[in-house]
Write a structure and sequence with these properties.
three-stranded antiparallel beta sheet, about 400 residues, 18 helices, mainly alpha
Length: about 400
């Protein structure tokens, strides 16, 4: 997916400019696609934005342009499904969603879908053009519903699925707010001590001409170096963090290492395993129950899973299933999935009720994940106490040990 800036000559003679994320790597293919989308339209100019400009444009959109949220897409599909069941045509249903009653992002998405439908595209093709905001799982559901004549049911299933996945992702972010706030507070307090308190006490030690222990000398030297180079340290830290975030986002190897680390760290591993297993079982349950084959389901899941470690296991499992092995045997071979999951899927394969077993697993791991999120503060308290206690114990010992020695010498 790359961002393209283009100018389109409209029927009225006006020139419309836009930036769009398209699944092409060259302007020629993107131009052909856009001209096919709007039959008879003329693309006057088109440029493919460089990768770094695409990243900045995404950042700009995130902060300055309201983006359609997963829950809003779910509501859009749910409302369209209800109207289709009531006998309302697709065009009318999408037009209603493009009215002033909807939010700005939903209106923009609905108008794009409506324009695509008017150009002769099917609803699934119109939805596929918005793969940046609509997951591939949902696109496949829409395609299945359209081909089988059950679009209202699959849209309702897609809406419920989006809400459940959105809740998992929202709870994951919420769970990280508390530990992030705690550690930022601790670091801020440590910086205050290093840049303000320690230099003041250092002057007092110099006036008293006290012989300082090695630990105190080390802390005072660190405080002096940190204070003198504070701007450089902050700028370097910001650049390193930016580089790491950009690298994890763009580089598969760095992303794999980051996710691998998250699956090892004491607190993050609980969140990562719970949320990813809830996500995978939720997707698998929906895809299998929709009638997709195991290979197709794993292929879609491979593209949809964000955790790079689990993604590689899904790739390995897909290759094993293609060779004729069962899903449970492949899960057991990768040695990442709990025995409970492997056993349940094995039973589902033996009884021909794999979709039911996956649905049960999805419900079970959603409940487990909710429990983890609800108790995250209790889980992280020991880590916070050890980190904060060790840091401030070091500072207190280093600063007050000379004072106690001085008092002992006077008495």
């Amino acid at each position: 997916m790359r961002y393209f800036y283009y100018q389109r000559l409209m029927d009225t003679g006006q020139v419309q400019t836009a930036v769009e994320n398209l699944a092409f790597n060259n302007p020629t293919s993107a131009r052909y696609y856009l001209e096919q989308r709007w039959e008879g339209a003329t693309i006057v100019k088109i440029w493919m934005l460089p990768s770094f400009l695409s990243w900045f444009y995404q950042l700009f959109q995130k902060f300055f342009q309201p983006q359609v949220q997963r829950e809003e897409v779910a509501d859009l599909f749910r409302n369209v499904a209800i109207m289709l069941r009531s006998g309302i045509p697709m065009f009318t249903a999408i037009e209603d969603m493009a009215s002033e009653d909807s939010t700005v992002p939903v209106r923009r998405l609905s108008k794009d879908l409506l324009e695509s439908l008017r150009s002769g595209a099917s609803f699934s093709e119109s939805v596929e053009r918005h793969a940046d905001v609509i997951p591939e799982t949902v696109i496949h559901l829409v395609r299945i519903g359209e081909s089988s004549g059950t679009l209202d049911r699959t849209l309702m299933d897609a809406a419920e699925h989006l809400k459940r996945v959105g809740k998992i992702m929202r709870d994951s972010k919420r769970a990280m707010i508390y530990p992030a706030f705690v550690f930022v507070t601790i670091i801020a307090a440590a910086v205050f001590w290093i840049t303000y308190v320690i230099p003041s006490i250092s002057g007092l030690f110099k006036q008293m001409q006290v012989e300082l222990p090695a630990i105190t000398l080390a802390v005072l030297a660190f405080s002096e170096d940190f204070t003198n180079n504070m701007l450089t340290i902050f700028l370097t830290t910001a650049i390193v963090i930016f580089a790491l975030v950009y690298g994890v986002k763009k580089n598969p190897w760095m992303r794999y290492q980051a996710h691998r680390l998250a699956l090892i760290m004491p607190v993050s591993k609980i969140l990562a395993h719970s949320s990813t297993l809830a996500f995978i079982t939720e997707y698998m349950s929906l895809l299998i129950s929709s009638g997709l084959s195991m290979v197709d389901s794993l292929e879609i899941l491979e593209k949809s899973t964000r955790n790079e470690v689990y993604r590689r296991t899904i790739t390995q499992m897909k290759q094993g299933v293609i060779r004729g092995n069962t899903l449970s045997s492949e899960m057991k071979a990768v040695k990442l999935y709990p025995r409970f999951v492997v056993r349940m899927i094995s039973v589902g394969e033996d009884t021909g009720r794999l979709d039911e077993q996956l649905e049960y697993l999805a419900s079970e791991y959603r409940e487990r994940f909710n429990h983890v999120v609800a108790s995250i503060s209790e889980i992280i308290k020991p880590v916070v106490m050890l980190f904060a206690g060790g840091l401030f114990l070091l500072l207190i010992v280093a600063l007050f040990l000379p004072i106690y020695q001085l008092i002992g010498n006077v008495t």
